[in-house]
Each structure stands twice: as structure tokens, then as C-alpha cells.
């Protein structure tokens, strides 16, 4: 019964989780929250992680009620993500691995999300929509790789939502996307926005530029409310995502769709995807904030799968990379 501890710190969430044979023993997390209207910078985010990582590590061990000698392997996020936060947390993972004399594994952040989603929902072979602040991809498994069928060609959907939240000066607590979701429930008017799908790919930067420009004018003239803008942006972005996901499902002959990543918590996205899945005779799988949002347990779970299949990372190769694509990883643990 291997027990794996996972360290995640690729963006503004710092999480450390412990997994034993599919059971989440602990999964504490802290978030670096900036003032309304501001994003989070790599240097400041790294300082936040450095200040809190040891207390989160101790909390993870205490909640799991285990000691370091009961840990079989250390897993950490190798990438993708923000350079300074990634390195800050990887440094701690490397140090712990050497102090405890344990093997270490560098995990792809995106695959961590997928494997956690599969574990929690029991989805067997889903088409995956991975949506977060840094990534937007439509993925399916084939021949030992998670293949990318479509993706954003510019910014991620979560980044688009976050940046629009800054314009409206919405709070970053608990997250800008969550506050846009709540504000969108007040919306009554659908404002037409650009709809940009290019084959299997999507583009969000032009939509953001358009709503920044038009939104300010409409708000100033009183023609719409902030709720209307949030509602319109969500409906447009999510319709694009549902469209490209459905095409991937049709291509793969899939009857399962799994939403992972921080934006996957959004109930409206889940609702729209659920309608599409029902019309296709397929099933929707999604998780809640505990596992959709970046967390240490997802890195532990992917690390557990890799460890059981015989993979470890030599200490000299435990570096980080900000660009680490999902389809670069050989998935040795699946048939």
C-alpha cells in the first residue's frame, strides 16, 4: 500500500496532499490573495509559498496522522506553471526527499488534474476538458499519451475571466472566477460578444479586449449592469468550450466527459456541458472545489500512479519547467 505525498505550488495555490491507494488522507491548501483589481506576481507568490510551505507540510502529516517514515515517495509539480512559485515548492520537495531518504517524482500539473478527476469520479476513459487560469485543453487518452485535440491559441479561459474581474474590481477572495460566477447570476441581458472557435481550438484574447472596451461604454451609459457583462461573458466562453469538447467526443466515440481544473468548479459550465452530454447519451463527470482547484492530493495521485508503474525521477533531473505539455508524458500506468 504505497503512500505518496504531493507538493503543488504552480500558481497562487500552495497545497500538500497525501494519498494511499486511492484514499485522500489529507489535502490542506492555502491561497495567495491579492487586493481587488490586481493579479499575482511570480516573485510575491513565491514568497507566499516559502512563508507557508512548512506549516502546510506539518498540517498534511498531522491530518493524515502519519510520520515521514510511512511515506513511500515524494511527488512535486514539475510544470507547467509560474517559474518562481514552482521552484520554491520543488526545492522543499527535493530537500524533504533527501532528508527522509525517499524517491522523488516530477509530475505534470495537467496530468495531476486528470488523474485526480478520474479517481474521484470513477470515470473510465473520458474526453477531458481541462480549464484553469493557465491552461485550456480538450484531451483524450490514446496509445500511452494524453492527446490534445484542441486548446487555446492565446490566453486560458480562467485568465480571461480573472482579467475581466480586475476591470470590474471584483474581489480575488476566494477567486475572481468564483465572484464572476456569482455576479453572472444577477445578469438579465445577453450582450453579443465575439465567438471564436478555430477548428478544434479556441481564442479568448479578442473577446477580452472587446468586452473591456464595449463593457466600459455600456456601463457608463447605463445600458447594462456588471451582472449582464459577467453573464454574457460566461455564456459565450462556455458555449465555445462545449462546442469543441463535443467535437472531440464525436471524433473519439466517447460517452464520458470529465471537467477538471479550477474553472471546472463553475456550476454554469457544468450545467451546459451536462445538457450536451445528455443529448449525446453520454455522462458528465466533475468534482467540487476540494479537487478542481489546484491541490497537493492531485499531484500525489498522479505520483502514486507513476510510482506504482515503476517510475521515479533521478535527483539531478528534479528541475522545473514552465512549459510542460500534457502530451509530452508517457502514460505508463494505463492500458
Structure keywords:
alpha/beta, 10 helices, 13 strands, five-stranded mixed beta sheet, six-stranded mixed beta sheet, about 325 residues
* Count of individual beta strands: 13
The biggest sheet amounts to:
6 strands, mixed
**Helicity level:** 40-55%
Percentage of residues in strands: 15-25%
Spatial separation of the terminal alpha carbons: 21 Å
The helix-strand sequence is: EEEEHEHEHEEEHHEEHHEHEHH
Number of helices: 10
What are the segments in which pLDDT stays under 50 over at least 5 consecutive residues?
none
Tell the overall outline: globular
Q: Indicate the radius of gyration in whole angstroms.
A: 20 Å
* Rounded mean pLDDT score: 97
Structural class: alpha/beta
Task: Describe the protein.
With 335 residues, the chain is of the alpha/beta class. The chain has ten helices and 13 strands. The protein has helices at residues 42-64, 83-100, 109-121, 157-167, 176-184, 205-221, 226-252, 267-279, 289-292, 296-308, and strands spanning 3-8, 13-20, 23-26, 29-31, 73-79, 104-108, 127-131, 136-142, 145-151, 197-198, 201-202, 256-260, 283-286. A hairpin with a 4-residue loop joins strand 1 and strand 2. Helix 4 (157-167) packs parallel to helix 6 (205-221).
Question: What is this structure, in a nutshell?
Answer:
With 335 residues, this protein is α/β, with parallel strands linked by helices. The protein contains ten helices and 13 strands. The strands form three sheets. Strands 1, 2, 3, 4, 5 and 6 form a six-stranded mixed sheet that branches.
Amino acid at each position: 500500500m504505497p503512500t505518496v505525498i504531493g507538493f503543488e505550488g504552480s500558481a497562487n495555490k500552495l497545497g500538500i496532499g497525501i494519498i494511499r491507494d486511492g484514499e485522500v488522507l489529507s489535502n490542506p491548501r492555502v491561497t495567495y490573495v491579492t487586493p481587488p483589481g490586481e493579479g499575482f506576481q511570480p516573485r510575491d507568490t513565491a514568497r507566499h509559498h516559502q512563508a507557508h510551505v512548512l506549516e502546510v507540510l506539518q498540517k498534511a502529516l498531522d491530518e493524515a496522522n502519519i510520520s515521514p517514515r510511512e511515506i513511500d515517495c515524494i511527488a512535486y509539480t514539475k510544470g507547467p506553471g509560474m517559474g518562481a512559485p514552482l521552484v520554491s515548492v520543488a526545492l522543499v520537495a527535493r530537500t524533504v526527499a533527501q532528508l527522509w531518504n525517499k524517491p522523488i517524482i516530477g509530475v505534470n500539473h495537467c496530468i495531476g488534474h486528470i488523474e485526480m478527476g478520474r479517481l474521484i469520479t470513477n470515470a473510465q476513459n473520458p474526453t477531458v476538458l481541462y480549464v484553469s487560469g493557465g491552461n485550456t485543453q480538450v484531451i483524450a487518452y490514446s496509445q500511452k499519451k494524453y492527446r490534445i485535440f484542441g486548446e487555446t491559441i492565446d490566453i486560458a479561459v480562467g485568465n480571461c475571466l480573472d482579467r475581466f474581474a480586475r476591470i470590474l474590481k471584483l474581489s480575488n477572495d476566494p477567486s475572481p472566477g468564483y465572484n464572476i460566477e456569482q455576479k453572472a447570476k444577477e445578469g438579465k441581458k445577453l450582450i453579443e460578444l465575439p465567438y471564436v472557435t478555430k477548428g478544434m481550438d479556441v481564442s479568448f484574447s479578442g473577446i477580452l479586449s472587446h468586452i473591456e472596451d464595449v463593457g466600459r461604454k455600456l456601463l457608463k451609459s447605463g445600458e447594462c449592469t456588471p451582472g449582464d457583462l459577467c453573464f454574457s461573458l460566461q455564456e459565450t466562453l462556455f458555449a465555445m468550450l462545449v462546442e469543441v469538447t463535443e467535437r472531440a467526443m464525436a471524433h473519439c466515440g466517447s460517452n464520458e466527459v470529465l471537467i477538471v481544473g479550477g474553472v471546472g468548479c463553475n456550476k454554469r459550465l457544468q450545467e451546459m456541458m451536462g445538457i450536451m452530454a445528455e443529448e449525446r447519451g453520454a455522462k458528465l463527470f466533475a468534482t467540487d472545489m476540494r479537487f478542481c482547484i489546484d491541490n497537493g492530493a492531485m499531484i500525489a495521485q498522479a505520483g502514486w500512479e507513476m510510482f506504482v508503474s515503476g517510475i521515479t525521477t533521478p535527483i539531478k533531473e528534479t528541475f522545473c519547467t514552465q512549459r510542460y505539455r500534457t502530451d509530452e508524458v508517457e502514460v505508463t500506468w494505463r492500458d
